[in-house]
Amino acid sequence: DSGVTQTPKHLITATGQRVTLRCSPRSGDLSVYWYQQSLDQGLQFLIHYYNGEERAKGNILERFSAQQFPDLHSELNLSSLELGDSALYFCASSVMSASGNTIYFGEGSWLTVV
Amino acid sequence: DAKTTQPPSMDCAEGRAANLPCNHSTISGNEYVYWYRQIHSQGPQYIIHGLKNNETNEMASLIITEDRKSSTLILPHATLRDTAVYYCIVRPPGPNNAGNMLTFGGGTRLMVKP
Fold it and tell me: What are phi and psi for residue B80, nearest 5 degrees?
């Protein structure tokens, strides 16, 4: 158990709909990262938040948005869903140590768009 | 783009050591080498990381060459549960640097066989 909690674990929705994926980082972690993994695709970085502020954006579509709240949990909002958005969405958080900051991943949210 | 090169696949006999190589010839002086693995559709799991010294933990050992252009992850006694995709990633330190995310390449698919 990495300590990163993602909900829901599975979600089936129709094209054109909107969903929200939620992430609770490890206690005390200020950074939250979101990744997408489509079927047979690699892990694609979407966005990074640090203490409520957006730090970096990757291949995130304009239909997608994210935010990190004052309690440090984060939400990834996916709108106008298309069949190609079906994927595993991972959230990760990072912890500082004497030798760098290690990123720990949650178990992911399976999104199926039908 | 990923800054590492790994063989796409490797086999290892159960109980033997698995040695997974990684080339990172363009690594910068302050970049760490991280190893993660992903067991089928689970969240990526942190294994180990290092800067220039060899590192060992309960999961694995990391050997980094003196010039830091390559490294080897060693699983000393591979089991069937170690079958996974292993990712070697280089990244700068610091939790709040833009670009501090993990950039995943294709990884090495390790198959541990009985």
Answer: -60, -30
Q: What is the DSSP letter of B31?
A: P
Compute the C-alpha angle A84/A90/A91, nearest 5°: 135
pLDDT in tens, A62-102: 999 999 999 999 999 999 999 999 999 999 998 766 566 78
Q: Identify the band that residue B14 occupies on the pLDDT scale cut at 50, 70 and 90.
A: very high
Which of B44, B101, B104 lies nearest to residue A56, judging by beta carbons?
A: B101
CB-CB contact of A69 with A55 (8 Å): no
CA dihedral A56, A77, A38, A11 (to 10 degrees): 150
DSSP for A5-51, please give it. EEE-SEEEE-TT--EEEEEEPPTT--EEEEEEE-TT--EEEEEEEET
A contacts of B46 (beta carbons < 8 Å): 2, 102-105
